[in-house]
Amino acid sequence: MRKEKKKPLIDEEYLKQNDWWWRRLVFGHYQDDTEKPNLYQVTQPKMSHLTSNGFKRNDQVKRWLENNQWRDWHDKLELLTYRYELARRVLRLKKFPHWPLLTEIEELGLIGALDDKKDEICLKLGPSNMNPNRAKPDLLWTFDLTGSDKVLKDKFMLLINDERRRKGLHDHINKMSKSGARKSANAKNRHRGISWRGLELLDIQFFKLGTLNNSETSTVSKLKREAKKWVESVRKVFSDIADLQSMGVDGERKNFKIAPYLKENYRSLKT
């Protein structure tokens, strides 16, 4: 007689090793020390965190993780993965796996769907982003990549200002906030960290792993309301992908933004 597979015991330790993947990033440090600031946030790792994962002080891979993966995560990807993980905790369907188990096409679709749709300063040309205030894509210039940064910037701005004048815009545009103050050049960058504890509390409540206090219950209720903003976007991405796959589009390639950088997956990739 065939034995049935035992369902894994769901407790907090199980969730830490499975669903709560943000605790296991090699390019970020999950802060769960209640005596330190940025509690329950993924912070930029210090040298001690990286060396504890097997990196040496002069490790080029370590520097690459710090300079590239952390910035990509902190500037945009963290917020998008958080929104998805929030939505899937309300949907609670198996067809919406946690982020590291997504395929490449699912991952890319969600990144597009869950973004704030701000008009980025630089976009690849496409029918959805050709508005009147964008430069024409047929400027017939190439740049000498061996030139100095200053020379390249100066020449680039000459071309940009020529295009602005052609479209009736002023040179040297400075964006202003609603209050009239000049916006920072980094206004689109996200500086405030995200607390992942709310998602963990949703799981603790769902799996009945403990009783939440009043503050935690309030947090969970607020997050359930917030999740409604992203639920339909998530549903649509998976629906569109199912349609594409029915037409023969390959959608099985593995996730590449997060899965390779979990501690359990990254060990075999270190030099």
Describe this structure as you would to a colleague:
It is a single chain. With 271 residues, the protein is mostly helical. The protein folds into two domains: 12-118 and 188-269, no CATH class; 122-187, no CATH class. It contains eight helices and two strands. Strands 1-2 form a two-stranded antiparallel ribbon. Mean pLDDT is 79; it is low at 125-130 and 176-188.
Widest beta sheet: strand line-up = 1-2
Poorly predicted regions: 125-130, 176-188
End-to-end separation: 47 Å
Secondary-structure element order, as H and E?
HEEHHHHHHH
- Mean of residue pLDDT values: 79
Number of DSSP-assigned strands: 2
Largest sheet report: 2 strands, antiparallel
Number of domains: 2
The total count of helices amounts to 8
What is the percent of helical residues?
40-55%
Query: Per DSSP, what share of the residues sits in E-state strands of 2 or more residues?
Result: under 5%
